[in-house]
Fold these 4 entries.
Entry 1:
Amino acid sequence: MRFYLFFILSSFFSFSQVTHTVNAGMFYYEPANLIINQGDVVVWINDQGFHDVNGEVNSITNEPFNNPETFDSPATGEVGAEIYTHTFNISGFYNYDCSVGTHAEQGMVGTITVNPVEENFIEGIWSFGNDFLHITENEITIFFYEDKLDCLIEIPYSYTSSEPGTITLIDSYYGYTFDIEIFVDNNGDLNILPPEEDVEIWSASTLDINSITSMTCSQIDYSQMIGQWELTSMNDVNLSEGLHYMEIFGNGTTIQYDYDVDNNCYEITELTVDFYNEFGEALLTFEDGVEIDAIIIINDSGELAAWVNDQEEVWNSTSFDPLSFSDCSNVSLMDFEEFDASIFPNPAKDNLLVELSHPGEYELIMMNIDGKKIFDGDFKDACNVDVSFLSNGVYLVHIFNSERSIIKTIYIE
């Protein structure tokens, strides 16, 4: 899963903000009469002299300006310094002057007209590449394209409005709450500013919600995954039988059995599979605390398909007895150099004679150089193997029992 979901969204509305500059000098503000939009910012810069910005009480009449909102600043005499900055969030007509000495009487006055801006509500359907947003009054639903599944995964979020221009989004799975900015710009696009991320610009979608939901992934019946499985292919490469098994239990506990060729035993690993939505996205937690993201589904062929660490696995339903697997953790280590097998003639044409340094009952598996099993069989102490049907080439002979294991290379002429 793409786990960027929790930073992608935000508010009710805000405004496309513009910053305006007013220069202040000896008995002037320039421009003296400014027209701006609701939500814009005005910055006053000192060209020369000692000035302030007074939007509270008229310095000439000593009467309140009665502006839609009041503002006032300390005076500064530093040339080039910022006298004051104010964001005008309330529309209306504003008067102000310089309250220093007789500056206002000498003409240092100004006006600002703040035009109202229509609220650009973010509700609707928006698109960003192959992803979609559906925003309603109380819910934001993300439909993001999952290329592995070739469909849209639907993730709903509820939200509350904490203040104008901001909502608090709630991630029900992780329990996160987070605030994000959002607004519709002058082009009619939805601008999203995730925390510590670059702005994302979403366009109004031409698709309706029914068209989008028709592209969503099918929900998974997780009960179909309970059972025993054998890994048959990895990244579209078929695997030999008997190497990897897995059993999934109803509570998410999963046990894997991976064959260790050198030691003729199985590495047994226990992990927990925790699905956090209905589309197969899961968190795998291993015994040592390592966590890995995965996608696990049952495909149309009834196989268990899994994507783990960018590796695609296909498992087929099977049946096995876990007690028949020799656990590598319980197999005592021994010096395998003392165990040897004599195979002759080598190269061979028709038959091979196998003799062992340690008599006993063993299993013999013959494989081609790619590891594909050709045949296997059991024998005691020694055996003759018919190889007359094999093509010329290099082969591997694996001889093992619960205590010993060895692999030999043979040549067929």
Note: The domain at 121-213 is CATH 2.40.128.280 (Lipocalin).
Entry 2:
Amino acid sequence: MFYETTNSGNYRVGEWYRDPLTNKRKKAYVGYISNTSRARKQAERELIDKIDELVNGTSFRNASNIKTWGQLRDDWLETWKAGVKPQTVERQKLITRRVSQFMNDDYLLEKMTPLFIKNLLLDYEKKFDASPATMRQIKSTFNKAFAHGVLYNIIQVSPMSAVVLHVPLDKKKAIKKRKDNKFLEPNELKAFLTEMSKRRNPNYYDLCLFLLYSGLRIGEAGAIGEDDVDFENSLVDVSKTLINNDMVKGDWHYDEPKTINSERFVAMPLVAMDILKRVIERSKDLDTYYETKPFKSYMKLPSIFRTEYGSPITSHAFREVIKRVQDELREHCKEWYGFEWKKNVVPHSFRIIHITYLSDDEVPLKEIMERVGHVDERTTLGYVRRSRKGSEKAIRAMNDWL
């Protein structure tokens, strides 16, 4: 380092560095006012940081220091996590822990070929009988980490460019069956809602109806407060979501919706607005009751879909009630409604039903996408299930061909 006095009488410390774009030597300076040992040391430290940023900043990362999978993964995670939600980061960390079961941190990047990666993935799938969804998550992690490596000149080519995972036919059939079992035909829906209406807390029944008529995600519905409802124009402002930790009872918070397009105003039919009116009144009555009879566990919150103790109805709580209803239907559905109960309702089922029924009624795809907060048509079409109504329409159309 070298030191200079400026024309204004102040001081500066300088040092040579090599410009990563031009490969030419250049000078960098940091100024300081007081010519004391302490001031010079501080300026020297700032100069070192400045040169490090100029040479190894975000545009010119020093790739020579990253040689192993573990180093690449950590470097990618550090960069990627700045633009996503905390719960997304935690979910990704869970996936990387799965990857660590078969991908050692000290594996050299230069030894990683497409065949090497594919064999690792196949070994993992076979050893743990991993589902296609799990394998997609792991492959996506590899895709993002190696793409990061290419972007920052850590590696020249991603070994994932030629890796394709083929799902066995039996697993494809199992996936389709699981998806189809989440959808309810009108007679199945009626039976389910009838049994749900017998629950002690009517909010669960109304939540089912509201999800059916709105197409909202369970987290979006759980976060709705009275201020989010525009009764004059029959609109609901979807600008937040309820996040809960399934592993810890009572661990939940409000957060931004899933994606940017998830923030929306959703037009509601009259039946949905009537549901919101009675749920809001019920919520107010609950607050009034516990004001006169205080209870330690009671919570007064803005959410209108609430448990008997005031907490918002989370996905976990909703699933528990759904499970009890289905347990009864599996045992008594034939006796009560004349058919065997073979379906598997989950909170997301109502979103699937909403989209499928609208599609059967020939509502334009773009309108459905806007209602449910989708950007990609393929995402919305992935929710559409084959239904009796759709099949009957197809048959009627074919009968009129000739």
Note: The radius of gyration is 29 Å.
Entry 3:
Amino acid sequence: MSEGWSNGRWTLFKCPLCGSRSYVQVRVQRSNGEWYTTEFFQCFDCSVMFKDPVLFSRCDSSRLDAEVLRGPGRVKPSDET
């Protein structure tokens, strides 16, 4: 296996939003009580979801859109139009 991977996990993961080094694969419980594993991952600290831990780790947070960083439904700062 290539460098950076261990036991099927990307060990060099770093969330570009909060700096966390931990992530988990998202599991969802169906209405019948059964659990299934989705194709998504989630940062352990800030809970942002993503599909590829390698690509997400390489994301440059300084280039993210301000609306993405602010999040849905948040109030815009007064200096924004």
Note: The chain has a mean pLDDT of 79.
Entry 4:
Amino acid sequence: MHTSFVLANIINWGWLSIGPPYIYININPVIVQIGPVALRWYGLMYVVGIVIGLWAIRHYTERKGLTQNIVYRIFWWCLVAGLIGGRLYFVVQQPNFFSYYLIQPQHILATWEGGMAFFGAIFLVIPTIFWRARVERINPLVAIDAGVLFAIVGQIFGRIGNLINGDIIGYRSTLPWSTVYQNPNSFACLNPAANTCNVPVQPAAGYELLSNIAVMVLMFYLAYRVRRPGVLMLIYLYAYVITQFLLFFVRDNVVVTFLGLNWGLKQAQWTSLVVFIILLPITYLVFRYSKPVPKGAVAATYGIPQKPKPEVEEHKEEDGENQPADGKDEAGTNDRQEMPRETHEKIEG
């Protein structure tokens, strides 16, 4: 108990205090509001995550032969796909989908209000990367590997946004690291029926943050050692479905049935099981058809047919090789010299 009091005296910043006996968060999710426009911590964390994520994968993409132009051309498509997929998958799972979101559709894409289901982003972004990689004539698995490295970095900042928002709530708990949300604008306090305001709960968002950090360290360690395209994608997806399945046992979400099965699981856990099963044949295909890139080869284009050069350019190159350095036509200048003597006499005559 004495230690808890010492910590409380050390960390007591008003917006965050530790013990005794819990962790208290008193942060307004809205940073500043001007009329109807509000800048929220959740949205700001998304921007920070995107910037840091692009910076973090820069050296990896350069080593794999992905230019910054290609990265950004693919990124903008993925950004739109990720926001739409993540938000829509979150919205359709909500119990008030018909009574709230369909009646007020302006809230469906209001990502700044909080609430993103990352599985939805995965379902839409991976096909988008595959499509754009084919357009760019690069190996789709190399591009997806870079994409999941970006994702794991960005997720960390998203979880910080979740912690501030109070939109990922665990079950009630008496553990010393339980979280208590105190700000009346926190998502934990906006729904009185949930009774999660000023109540100690499992820090589910904190658990997810720690798992993201652990997976990120593993992936960046392997990124410099694995030469088979697609392996990083598999590690990320397996890690995500396993951690989601386990962590949702402490999240206070609605238990749902699936195909008539009532196993006491939540929606994300059912999704994790389905994705895990789908990953098994994908794993076989990756190890069957994706070959390790030889040292010295460019991973992004290795084994991918490239556009042939236009014929006009090829002819120009050939003409340039055949043309003498002084630009003169040797054959033309020597024609007269090589004429027989009789021909010279006739011409002169």
Note: Residues 68-93 form the longest helix (26 residues).
